[in-house]
Design brief:
Blueprint (H helix, E strand, L loop, with lengths): L4 H14 L1 H5 E3 L2 E5 L2 E7 L2 E5 L5 E13 L2 E5 L4 E13 L2 E8 L3 E9 L4 E15 L5 E5 L8 E8 L4 E4 L7 E6 L11 E10 L3 E3 L2
């Protein structure tokens, strides 16, 4: 008996949709957060990178602070506000570098929830991060577009069990712009990533029905 490729593909798709892991992940419209209120987020090694050239600016640590809304039935967009963001002991090669956040407060937005793992996914938006290695006249900015508005978006995940907020290397719109005197190490329009794992204190329990 002959079976068409289309029938095989449809059968495989149906099986995947029916699997527990597929059903566990869902776009979320409302959220429950406890305890909410003021939070701090601290990370160890935090790295800014140009994915086209491989250039990196590592920082020994970074920190954010802000608030997250408490309660239930909360919308995901703007569920949290990050009023401060700082980067410590950064370097460009063997020399120090200055990394400065602007566009604050940044917004924490939640979009989907995996019930089986307790992991929420979303974004931090309104990002603008400037970098300037002290050893060169190079300056450059991570954001979403080449304009002046702070419009960078980074994809994040949050695990309630551990209280860890991870900035993910894919899923956002981050690029380098306003690159000046960087000698091709960082170029306008190059894709950018930020890598960091933040411990949220106090730990928040974030779920979605």
């Amino acid at each position: 008996m002959r079976t068409s490729i289309g029938a095989v593909v449809l059968a495989a798709a149906a099986a995947l949709a029916a699997s527990p892991s597929a059903a566990a992940v869902a776009t979320a419209t409302t959220w429950t957060v406890s305890p909410g209120g003021k939070i701090t987020a601290t990370a160890g090694k935090t790295t800014l990178a140009d994915t086209r050239t491989g250039a990196t600016i590592p920082c020994e640590s970074s920190r954010m602070s802000g608030t997250i809304k408490p309660g239930s039935g909360l919308p995901g967009p703007g569920i949290g506000s990050l009023a401060t963001s700082g980067y410590s002991l950064c370097s460009g090669g063997p020399f120090p570098a200055t990394v400065t956040a602007s566009g604050l407060p940044w917004r924490l937005n939640l979009t989907s929830y995996n019930r089986s793992t307790g992991v929420a996914r979303g974004t931090i938006s309104h990002l603008r991060i400037a970098a300037a290695p002290s050893s060169t006249p190079c300056t450059a900015v991570i954001k979403g577009t080449g304009g002046t508005v702070p419009d960078g978006v980074a994809s994040v995940s949050y695990t309630s069990k551990t209280g860890i907020l991870k900035v993910l290397p894919t899923g956002g719109n981050l690029h380098w712009y306003h690159a000046r005197r960087c000698a091709g190490i960082i170029n306008n329009g190059d894709a950018a990533t930020i890598s960091a794992s933040y411990t949220i204190s106090p730990r928040q329990v974030i779920t979605s029905p």
